[in-house]
Amino acid sequence: MVASLAAALPAVSRVAVIGAGAAGLVAARELRREGLRVVVFERDAAIGGTWVYTPATESDPLGLDPGRDIVLSSLYESLRTNLPRECMGFLDFPFSSRRAPDGGDARRFPGHREVLRYLQDFARDFDLYGLIRFRREVERVERDHDGRWQVDSRSVDEAGGDGGDESEVFDGVVVCNGHFTEPRIAEIPGIDVWPGKQLHSHNYRVPEPFTDQVVLIIGSAASAVDISRDIVRYAKEVHISNRSLPDEPPRKQLGHDNMWLHSMIASTHSDGTVVFRDGSSVQVDVIIHCTGYNYHFPFLKTNGIITVDDNCVGPLYKHVFPPSHAPSLAFIGIPWKVAPFLMFELQSKWVAGALSGRIALPTKEEMLEDVKAWYSELESAGWPKRYTHNMSNKQFEYHDWLAKQCELPPVVEWRNLMYEAAGKNREARPESYRDEWDDDHLISQAEEDFTKFLCHSSISSIY
Ligand SMILES: Cc1cc2nc3c(=O)[nH]c(=O)nc-3n(C[C@H](O)[C@H](O)[C@H](O)COP(=O)(O)OP(=O)(O)OC[C@H]3O[C@@H](n4cnc5c(N)ncnc54)[C@H](O)[C@@H]3O)c2cc1C
Ligand SMILES: *[C@@H]1O[C@H](CO)[C@@H](O)[C@H](O)[C@H]1NC(C)=O
Description:
26% of the residues lie in helices and 19% in strands. It is built from ten helices and 22 strands. The strands form six sheets. The protein has a six-stranded mixed sheet with strand order 9-17-10-11-13-12, with helices on one face. It is globular and about 60 Å long.
């Protein structure tokens, strides 16, 4: 049973999008396609969010001080994508290596600048720049008595120009503020007396400052793998503390003479030693926390209806709509362990359709029931709360579910196969997966698909 939207909502016409990263850009495009009037608020002076590399780092290298000057991007200079470009791009804007013939980065796992260029081309080809208000930070989003949303923003013009504070009313708000800016830190016994230097991967840029140092990297995911390889060329020793490893003595990382894998840290001490759970210890100069990020919506005033608890944002129907405010408040990009751009695009199509009234949502009660069912599924699988939005083995199903809501066909098979093949390859060849692979047949399928698509499209600037 679905509720009649038309009866429940005033006509939606103006929608605010918060953020002009990949999620905000594709959301803006989809909302406009549905005939909605869109204003995108972007704190930065440029589009691209995460993909705008800056050598700048934050005043607090751990990123904990709430009063610090925030640097948005977490990119390091050497970063190359961890997904093959063909399955990383949007559905209908191929991120093919045949694009950018003029000095672009044609590698299958390109450097970060190529991704930014792709997003800039996307924004230009879909004429999105005119929708964006740059250097405006949304400070407050609150629902009025009549169900509309008041959006307060301030100018962040460095020159201190005019602009100032503004307050505007919108029918809908789509939150696309990203979730790789607010560091999450490991709790370590004794860290208060440990004399070394600490930083979070958010503030890691280049390896040279770690020359001849003994570096301990905490983390098990992509950034720990990449940053350890980046630094090991300069550092005296690199140690990785990986909570997925059993409490066993350290072992050398294959292929490296000065890199060791350890279990979790047991304690740290005032003489600079770090003791691991297996009893071994190392004298360490620097700890780098590659321990991920927290969701953070400092502007959202919803009287406790939407909360962030142990990295669970809730309640959210299908990770997108808070049932009590659906569809006028929506979140794009919450799930992780996904192919982000594709997911942003499908979520955006769903949100845009729901906001225009073309796609109906279930009732509030039904949505809440669905959220509860998801929570109990996680619980019976023994997953911690912080994994609520981890889509590792659910994302293909989730994408197809979203596509179905939008009356679109399921995601084309090569994308899923390629995503899986890349994951397996990354496990098997952590050092070289970006340059060696076994799925050329999938690249051919992707290119065939892209060519077919481009024949039926008005986009001309890609090849
Ligand atoms: C180190 C690293 C490596 C990654 N590698 C890959 C990869 O290889 N492949 C891949 O597909 N994905 C990768 N990702 C994931 C990446 O985050 C996504 O690809 C995507 O860029 C996220 O887009 P987003 O729009 O959700 O968020 P963001 O890119 O963070 O954009 C959010 C935007 O919102 C703006 N904003 C925030 N708050 C406000 C406010 N209050 N008012 C106004 N504007 C605001 C910000 O300025 C920013 O521009 C990586 C992420 C990281 C951190
Ligand atoms: C941590 O261990 C897991 C499981 O063995 C592995 O998949 C992952 O790549 C490791 N991470 C690092 C940074 O070594």
